[in-house]
Q: What sequence folds into this?
């Protein structure tokens, strides 16, 4: 449990930094639809997911308890997403995070280990 809390703290900090205002405006003024996708290995269990928009609003999904998850998000200026979880058998696993726009993966990151923490941003 302590490892999960440390990973959550890290994810929260990373999302807070990535959501801060910058001069970059990757999404422009128009609202776009993004797909956020997390794919884990067979032994992965996603506990919590945070999806943040460039305007500072966010959605938190707790007790996900799945190895894979996805949703569509509409946002102006891009999005960030992070997931934290663990492996169910104490053997190393993988968790991949993706942001997809118009059917193309625009950002991706992967976490490996027994505690999984994947974050991705396009802001």
A:
């Amino acid at each position: 449990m302590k490892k999960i809390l440390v990973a959550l703290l890290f994810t929260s900090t990373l999302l807070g930094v990535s959501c801060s205002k910058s001069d970059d405006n990757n999404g422009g003024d128009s609202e776009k639809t993004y797909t956020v996708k997390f794919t884990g290995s067979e032994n992965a269990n996603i506990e919590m997911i945070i999806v943040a928009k460039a305007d500072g609003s966010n959605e938190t999904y707790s007790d996900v308890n799945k190895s894979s998850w996805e949703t569509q998000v509409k946002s102006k200026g891009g999005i960030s997403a992070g997931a934290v979880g663990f492996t169910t058998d104490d053997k190393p696993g993988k968790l991949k995070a993706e942001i997809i726009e118009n059917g193309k993966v625009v950002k991706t990151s992967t976490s490996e280990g027994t505690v999984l923490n994947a974050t991705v941003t396009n802001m």
User: Anything to note?
Assistant: The beta strands are 32-40, 44-53, 58-66, 68-75, 79-87, 93-101, 104-113, 115-121. The longest strand covers residues 44-53. The radius of gyration is 14 Å.
